[in-house]
Amino acid sequence: MSFLDMFRVNKIKAELDQTRADRDTLKATLSDTEHLEHYELQKAIAELARKKQELEQAIAGLDVTHSKRRQGHDREIAELERQMKEKRKDLVLMDDEILLQSFGFYQPKYDLANAEAYKARLDQIRAEQAALIKSGRATNSPTNWTVNNSAKEGERMIKDNVKLIVRSFNNECDASIVNVKFSNLESTEKRIQKAYESLNQLARRLGISLTPDYLNLKLQELYLAHEYQLKKQQEKEEQKRLREQMREEAKLQREIEDAKLKLDKEEKHFVKALAALNTQLLKAGSDAERELIEKERASIEQELTELTKARQDVLNRERNTRAGYVYIISNLGAFGENVYKIGVTRRLEPEERVDELGDASVPFDFDIHALIFSEDAPTLENALHRAFEKRRLNMINQRREFFHVTLEEIEQVVRQNFSKPVEFVVLADAAEYRQSALLRNGTPPAA
To answer: Cα(first)–Cα(last) distance of the chain, in Å?
Structure first.
């Protein structure tokens, strides 16, 4: 082999050594940021591939008589390929998380009743893990190992290494499980599985290995922790719904009390006026005067009849907890066309509820397309929600009652489930949105 060839080979070997050192440094100092890990791994793989190509080119130029040296280079290439394969495994794990490949609906493995049940089950699983470690069934390890011809020293060394392997695995699992969420569940499961395999490979020469039973308990803890978080979120949303319902009920009760007071005040006014007219009627001196008083008295009696009817309506609304308004509203500027919110309110003045929905959290006010009073408003609302279940914008949170449908489709379902006449406003006013578009673009948007 020529001096130039030797120089090139030694240079490549030095670069390979430096690459390994860089790889080890990279592995020890990886950032917690997944995108940085992803980038560094890709960079390391590209560098290894470049070194491999240069080494292959160097080998091609060597004298065939130096077969032993060539075999050494072949081993170097094989080692590079192995390292690249390992890097690609890590890269797949990070791609899973970065690309969020786990967006499908998660199928619960436990489906317990509430968050407390999940917490109790988690405590139970962790207790089982501790029991497995205590009984020595978390790992397989040799019992006949000696150090310096001492079985006692050998036993101590094996115990120390078992503690190290178990602690390393627990640390990896704990760091992964604490950050589990719907978007990284699959990659977290792979990471735990990979840690299990890597540690078993590392301790293979000592005859130590983590048991499948211990791995299974860690995976159960992962699933339980994930479902525990989901259940807590569901319960949080349910608590929000109940608080909102209580606020609505409180506002309705205030409206009812205010309506009663107003009716009482008006009734007293008309009763007093009627009594005065009766007195005037007794003192009337002519038929013409009595006729005018009778006419005025009849008008007041009609008002009292209307007040009685209104009072009865208020009392009926107070007693009937299912009576209310189903509202169909849209917000063209916030959500675009053919997106409608279908909700229910028991308020005496349903427009107030719609005004509250159009608060500062949305850029424009909502437009009302229909207010449907029903003695059983929740049933009508549920019928509409069931009909458009697959058209929900938010398929997870049922409190978000927005649907991607046309007003014609909504009207058709209403007609099928409600027999009384309903008036629909087809074109949304969207005044502020249209005026804003005009000021911004100089031309109004299409109606």
So the answer is: 83
